[in-house]
Amino acid sequence: MKNISKPLILIALLSGFLNSCSKMEELQDDPNRTTDATPELILTQLEIQAFNNIGTSAALASRHLVNTDGVNSNQYYNWQRSDFGNYDLLKQVRQMVLEAEEDELSVYTPLARFFNSFFIVGLTQTFGDVPYSEAIRAAEENFTPVYDRQEDIYLIVLDDLKTASDELAKNDETILGDVIYNGDHLKWRKLINSFYLRVLLSLSAKTGNPGLDIAGRFREIADAPSAYPLLASNEDNGALPFHDIEGNRYPLFQNNGLQTAFYMEKTFVDKLKALQDPRLFSFAEITPAAADQGLTANDFEAYNGLKGSVPLDENVQIAVNGNASRINKRYYDQAGNEPSLLMSYSELQFILAEAASRGWIDGDADAYYREGIRASMEFYNIAESAINTYLENPGTQPDPGNEIASILTQKHIAMFMNTGWQIFYEQRRTGYPEFDVSGGGVLNNGKIPKRWMYPSKEETQNGKNLEAAITRQYPEGDNINAEMWLLKEE
Amino acid sequence: MMKHSLIILLLSITPRLFAQHEVSGKVTDTDGIPLGGVNISVAGSMQGTVTDFDGLFTLETGSSQDSLVFSYIGFKALTVPIAGKSQLNVVLKEDTEELKEVVVTALGIKKETKALGYAVQEVQGDALEKAKEPNFISALSGKVAGLNIKNSTDLFQNPEISLRGAKPLLVIDGIPDRTADLWKVNADDIENISVLKGATASALYGSVGLNGAIMITTKKGKEGKLTVTFNNSTMFQPSFIKVPDVQTTYGNGDNGIYAYENGSGGNTEGGGWIWGPKLDQPDPSTPSGFAETPQYNSPVNPETGELTPLPWISRGKDNISNFFRTGLVQSNNLSVDWGNDKASYRMSLSNVYQKGIVPNTGLNNTSFSIGGSLTPSEKFRVTSGLTYNKQYTDNFPQVGYGPTNYLYNLVLWTGVDVDVRDLRNYWKEGQEGYQQRHFNTSWYNNPYFQAYEYLRGYDKDNLFGNLAFEYKATPELTVKGRSGVNVYSLGRTYKEPKSYLGYNDKSRGNFSLENTNYFDITTDIGIRYEKDFSDNFSVSGEVAYSNFYRKETYQYSSTDGLNIPGFYNLDNNAGSTLTGTNREEEEAIHSFYGFVDLEFYNAFYITFTGRNDKVSTLSKGNNSFFYPSISSSVVLSSLLDMPEWITFAKLRGSWSRVSDGKIGNIAGLNENDPYNYIQAYDKGTSWNNTKGERFPSVRYSNLLIYHALKPKTVDTWEIGTNIRLFRNRLGIDIAYYQTRDYNNLENIPLSDASGFGTYLLNGNIYKRKGVEFTVNATPVQSDNFRWDAQINLSQYRRYLEEIYGNKEYTEDRLQVGDRTDKLNNASVYQTDGQGNIVFENGFPVSDPYGRFVGYSEPDWTYGISNTLTYKNLSLTFQLDGRLGGLMYSTTNQKMWWGGISPGTVNQYRDDANNGESTYIGEGVQVVSGQVTYDTNGNIVSDTREYAPNDVPVNYISFMKTTSNAHNENYHYYSQTFIKLRELTLTYNVPDKFISKMPLDAVSVSFVGRNLWMASKVPNVDPDPGKDDLQAPSTRSIGFNLNLKF
């Protein structure tokens, strides 16, 4: 017996280990992630994503900047594909709505309409037809959403934006998690209404389309400022501020490339010089050669640019000889720099100016134009006196024969390093300002592309729907030079 | 009859003493057939010999009254007194008990080799003892067919291990090590390593054994006298077998111009290119006689305040050898063991010190291990072992391409106008602690600054051990149990000085801390039954219950900038808040398993196994699952009359199913996270509003998770044979296997428009196939000389058998039937269909569709090792490598891109420096027409007409844009290589020299590793199987001293 009992003790001991952790169900809750969220937690994320659009690609494609590290496809216009990243954000919008419904909150619904519109417009402007009515339906096991016609998408967007504005006007629930407007309903309505006008203006080729009734819709908003308030000052800007806090810094802060291989584009610099536009001092550094000559930052002669369209080596040669202006240091050495703009008061003024000039509304195009310039210059903290001088300059006066060209030229200046790809789309829509392709270095047979190819993932994962969309839109195939519905005059 | 050649080798080392009596004779079996390789020793002494192929022997003994002991595996040992005779003819009888050559199989169960229905290959610990690698796994390279080890050239980086194409389980003394720490077992403590190659072999481990197992058995106390062993191994790394070869003709700069202003982009010096002016150009007008220009180290002219021009010469030609130092791996082990029939005990103390080739880097690895057994009665036995291991370093290099990589700063992006010796003084004068001194402070770190100021500490305490018992309740029934724990705590620190550069990040100083605490326990309790019903039929089997539990916690904290430079403490945070995160993980598996072994006529063996796992890592309802296996072996040589030269022949076959209920190794998920089956929100960015209030956020995962995931399953069948010829002088083992991997838990891509980028579900189906050959041979065996050789050869392939949802292509553009290593989606340039590259404006045109460039898996992986023994000298050398298979080389791509590749030294470059565009890429340009593609990238219509490309472009612009990709197979290079992995020359000091000392045995070895290599890929060692800018590959040379007291 003695010999048996001791081994038994060991068995008992080991069995003790077995029992120590037998409740498996208790191990099946994730302590690291939440499965439940409140809508405001998602709203914060959506705002950060939607309002933060700082980058260099659009600046290269819009003849604001030039890169000397290689033949950049944005600068030389031989880009190919873009991505469907916005659908992830559309899903976040949907989650926000679901969580809000669970909490019986309705104020997030109009915000959701706005974000949905913002993200889908971003997609359709890039590609043409894209999935929308069947998009974000994976939970219902629809993994291959059909592509909606661009026209249908815009119809939904226009209705949604108006509904959002109306709904928000009637809602007095608190908006939480709002890093843009701190829950200010009025400012949100101003942004939504102003964005609605931007979308309408982007359809300027479609004034003859009776179903859209672009001008009528535009007037409905612009002529009813109490029902549909608009952005009224830079204070109302749809802007995301940056902070000197980990993760919240200006996206190009300490960017290696920006301080060594990005230069101002020559046609842009020359224009600012010709206009004696003091915003140049805020955008650019003086050239090393000018510095060697002792020229100062407020001397227009101290600035020079590189032509985006000439062969790379010609630009490199000018740059290494110290004859090109870099972008202003603040873009890479200030953590806060300037806020990122989803849409600014200045842009709204240019929109109204163009609408007036097109005869959609009755206002004074010239006054809107001047107010747009003033707002932009105030954004860059240009002194009042300098602004007034600038507004009096002959070069600043709108071209009476081609007001729209003047408006777009000023819009192009005002959108330097902000508002994402907006200025590229404006140029695509109007042809103004002209983007230089004369230098002999431009690829894509010297043409500016009109769109991007669909993501290759759509080819493998949603091939049939993609193919149908391509066939009905672009007889030449999925091509960057093809013209989408939005750009076709009717 | 059968015997491991290595054991024979060890025993055949014959000390020669002054002879007083010579005896010779012949050894045969009962049929009168001569036995070669029989060990003969003089009882009570170290003297001995082995019989030759004809069974003949001659031996000189100290006295004619000695006795001789004849031993031979498979035969009963026989002691024969010489009794004055000079001729002895001895007949050895076969020993059916002794015939059982055993190997360690799953769960530590020892089985006869001949009974195995699957492939197992053993490596004895002494093969790892002399030619030391910093970790024991690297020392297994080329030694096991089917085990592919890709060794890193960087300090303290895990080699990549794959067994039959998948990562195997590591098992230490029967306890699975899920922490897979390859550094915690010291090679000196390893008795042997048994590689269980397929899922069948390791099926009893359950899901963790899905991909086979590497089983480590540590040394235990041996019965016999008290032995003290000291083993020292010292290896230097004085030189490189592969290092990037760079051009020394041109310096830093761009378009042939270099102008230094402030180092951070004020002029060309900041851009970081090595497309500068020619070096070493005579200029009689300057003081030095060479062209001069201001540089980062120019003295400031006190009168003008300007930088004084310095000669533009190739001062930095030897930057590599000037910066890297001689590495060192020094390993010491002291062990004591003793045992008798009741108890045994071993303790061992080891230390491995590694001095890195990068200054101020190193690694210490210390282990203390105890283990033993108690056998109080014949029925009861307890064994236990416990090891404490500490891995610690104050600094080891960061790897991967980027400004945190030493080679990046030293070679890849530094023209030889910079002499690294001048950078030893690494603070900018007057800005000590704030700004590093370097020729370029916008992109690159001063390598000395990096080595001495950017410190990555690592401190891991491992404790692991096990306790096991066996109690033989009746002759047939044994109760057994085993419990093992793995515990570790790991603390890591990151000290980042001010002005340290990352991509788009100039540090304001930072201090980060990471702490992990880990615990797991595996406990098995079971009953074993065994009975020999007759000589021709026996049964054994086991049923057991097993329980696994793991808990892991992790914490991370970091400053957001530092106030006081060089003061690394969270309290020195300059930011408004500390950043931090933490995790906690718990998981469990409850299992029942069992097996039955049947044996008939000593020739047929069948094993059935079964296991049921219930896991916490899948949702309820899908988390309990059963899987079986069957394996069988037939010993033909016992059944049939074989020719005499066939010593042994067997056929084996097996089938198994193993399922795994843990989701791991999926992009976007943490590999060991037990909660991966749960759909949830991820933490998002927090942001301040304009009032300074901080808002947290969440975002919904971009990965959709199927709600009823099933465990993934691998079905494997395998056949093989083991044949030994000429009395074991030649042994051949061949294995062929096929697996079908289904219900794979993987991310299936979705149209992003569906709302999710990927869908985690039981997805595609794959098939793996492979073949492995092992040949053991003893081509020469005589009294004084013996040559043993082993050849390992294997091939492995994986195919796509089914695409989830029956889609035409996967995201990598693979189709059903394709090898999964097919590189079918590489970014390439357009061609005209005849293989000519299409150019526009002198630049190649990108193809919007990914294309085929080759296959990444090697065709064959091989290893050849030889041991030549002459008297007391033995020489071991091993050659191994891979044949075929492509790897992408970041180093080569960047060298072409940046201008440091020797291939860029040509007339076009001189022309470009002179502002002339003369380079015309070889290819065509489109003169008319266009091409359209279908959505799969196939050409639908093509009306293009071509003319040869005749547009000259600036060579520098061309290289900066293309990296010469189209001329370098898009930087996919063949991995083919052969390496002299190991060379060991050992001298066993004869007894006559050590008999007067208090020593039992002494051996001294000269050791070399990685001595020579031939390969196809330029500039990098293909051994790691990938290249993300690896450290130069070093050669190791040193010695080993082994003393036994």
From TrEMBL, chain A:
Protein name as it appears in the record: SusD/RagB family nutrient-binding outer membrane lipoprotein
Record Pfam families: SusD-like_2
InterPro entries per the UniProt record, alphabetical: SusD-like_2, TPR-like_helical_dom_sf
SUPFAM superfamilies xref list: TPR-like (SSF48452)
Keywords: Lipoprotein
